[in-house]
């Protein structure tokens, strides 16, 4: 079908290029809005929606340049360059900020769409974008993949002279379905120990009850409970 051919094959370059950028901008904006809706109520990097908006345009511009120079570069070379750029964007994001791994998914999607638009397959990219957006919204509506119970990270500070071995096992067995010792380290210049457990609470148990009982065994020192995924 003509509609699924590259715009660079059916239109003049001066017309195909801006049309690809416009659709890339629209797709980036749509993805950014979906991201904000899905992340509503959760912490996320301030400029992440802006990055999702800009990445498709930037990728479409760069790959579009390579596509225009098709007399010097084969199409397969253009695609390979785009794939490398996508991997680079994803890995840079993943290594520089571990706030939320789902951010990487949006950046990869934005990058892939930018490559598709850069090659000129606008209708293909637009339909793919709409399909992905619908899928994301449906999964978000049904809370697919979310951990309803939640894994918590419990950081407990204890005195240096306290024997930490198994002292909190009974507390966790009482309040938690699962618990695992993940880390022991010294803090405050070696004056205190900090122990970290990853736990999941039993149904009906509260974080407050767990913290109150832990404090009975650590001399009322600091106890911090947080989302284990953010560690």
What is the structure about, briefly put?
Helix content is 56%, strand content 15%. With 231 residues, the chain is an alpha+beta fold.
Give the secondary structure arrangement, pairings included.
Layout: H1 7-10, H2 13-38, H3 48-68, H4 75-96, H5 102-119, H6 122-141, E1 152-159, H7 169-175, E2 176-187, E3 192-201, H8 207-217, E4 223-227
Antiparallel strand pairs: 1-3, 1-4, 2-3
Keywords:
231 residues, 4 strands, 15% strand
Count every beta strand, where a strand is a DSSP E run of 2 or more residues.
4
Proportion of residues in helical segments: 55-70%
Backbone structural class:
alpha+beta
| Strand adjacency order, main sheet | 2-3-1-4
User: What is the general shape?
Assistant: elongated
Major sheet: 4 strands, antiparallel
How large a portion of the residues is in β-strands, by DSSP E? 15-25%
Q: Helical region count?
A: 8
Termini separation (Å)? 50 Å
Report on this structure.
The chain has helices at 7-10, 13-38, 48-68, 75-96, 102-119, 122-141, 169-175, 207-217, and strands spanning 152-159, 176-187, 192-201, 223-227. It has 231 residues and is α+β, with helices and mostly antiparallel strands. It has a 4-stranded antiparallel β-sheet, covered by helices on one side. Helix 2 packs antiparallel against helix 3 and helix 3 (48-68) packs parallel to helix 5 (102-119). The protein is elongated.
């Amino acid at each position: 079908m003509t509609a699924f051919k590259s715009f660079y094959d059916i239109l003049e370059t001066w017309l195909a290029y801006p049309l690809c950028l416009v659709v890339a901008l629209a797709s980036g904006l749509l993805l950014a809005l979906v991201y904000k809706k899905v992340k509503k109520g959760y912490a996320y990097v301030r400029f992440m929606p802006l990055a999702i908006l800009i990445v498709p345009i930037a990728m479409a511009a760069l790959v579009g340049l390579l596509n225009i120079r098709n007399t010097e570069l084969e199409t397969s070379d253009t695609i390979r360059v785009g794939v490398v750029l996508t991997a680079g964007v994803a890995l840079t994001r993943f290594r520089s900020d571990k706030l939320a791994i789902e951010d990487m998914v949006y950046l990869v999607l934005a990058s892939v769409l930018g490559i598709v638009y850069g090659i000129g397959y606008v209708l293909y990219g637009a339909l793919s974008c709409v399909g992905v957006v619908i899928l994301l919204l449906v999964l978000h509506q049904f809370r697919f993949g979310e951990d309803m119970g939640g894994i918590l990270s419990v950081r407990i500070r204890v005195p240096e002279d306290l024997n930490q071995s198994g002292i909190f096992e009974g507390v966790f067995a009482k309040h938690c379905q699962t618990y695992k010792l993940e880390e022991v380290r010294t803090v405050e210049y070696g004056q205190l120990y900090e122990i970290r457990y990853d736990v999941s609470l039993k149904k009906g148990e509260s974080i407050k009850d767990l913290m109150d009982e832990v404090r009975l065994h650590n001399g009322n020192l600091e106890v911090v409970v947080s989302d284990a995924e953010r560690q």
